[in-house]
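Hi L., both proteins are below.
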Amino acid sequence: MTTPSLITLSDPSSYVTESYKLLRTNLNFKNINNKYQVMLMTSAGKEEGKSTTICNLAITFAQSDKRVLLIDADLRRPQVSAIFDINKRKKGLSNMLADAMPLDTLINKIDSLDKLEILPAGTKPVSPTELLNSEAFETLITQCREEYDVILIDTPPVLSFADASIIAKVTDGVLLVVASNETKRAMVVEAKKNLDKVGAAIIGVILTKVKFKKNANYYRYDYEKGKTQ
């Protein structure tokens, strides 16, 4: 089932979908020699659109024939399962880290995308910070590097909890989501400072909730014909 948030599946020719594809292209351009294989996505505050963004980005990577693992490491307020219509009671990351469950028993696959696999947040009611700061989590990321081309990790807002800063230590780069006309400049600056403290490599900033006029013109590149339209 496709939920409204997954516009890259529900409306593949939309302007928003093209924007996600452009984001993928820009990341591929920066990702020479697979420098950024493991990427974390966070935001300064809540409800800035990071989970919707990372889910659609994961889809576009999978559509480009990359083997992708999407990990929901927002154990406090997980959204990935709801976006992909996965049963929220399914076991996932927290169960794996707390009970040493094998990764392949917790993976969820998407019918229309054989290259995309999802590790949901899980159901174990334990301390997220302790789990994510564990040797088991580091081992998981090391294992996944051998099996996947791209690993995307959704995390809580960096100013609300330490989780994103902890996870950043074992990733290659961070994507910071900023909501247009909502996120205060001071919050963005503070979020960057928090990530800088742990030596996180900020790959770029993604602007969400941008308002477009319905009749706005834009250029789309036709790859087959080699011209703009």
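That was the first. Here is the second:
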Amino acid sequence: MNARTTLTVPAVIVAGLLSLTGCSAYDSFVHKHATSTFDDVKAFGDGADVDADWVPADATAITVRTSTVDKASDAVILLTSGSALADDCAEVERLSAPAWVLDDAPDPYTAKTVFACGDWTIMATDDGWYGWTPNSEGERSAAVEG
């Protein structure tokens, strides 16, 4: 085998594997994130790899994007809900922004204030909530001082 063939064969194999496994494998490999969707809170609780106690009980159409980097805690959640956030979430000045953008999510940079719920920052959407973690120490501190 010549050098050109030696380099081309692995590239073709990787491209083929990525095309067979779809976008999620590509995103995981190249962009270092994985995206999952859940119909409701029960499905979210059964299958999500994130701890997000702030998610309202009536949440539906839940989209979660998490990091595929080992021990990284970056995550975003977009959901539909008619409920308010829990009382332990405090409105604070927005000091952080999410690691990733989700389709149909609002632009976090337009928010002057957000809700700090532990390690999560949440902002209202037209029909629910958009949250990200980690948030800033300033948001967590302001929520505690609040």
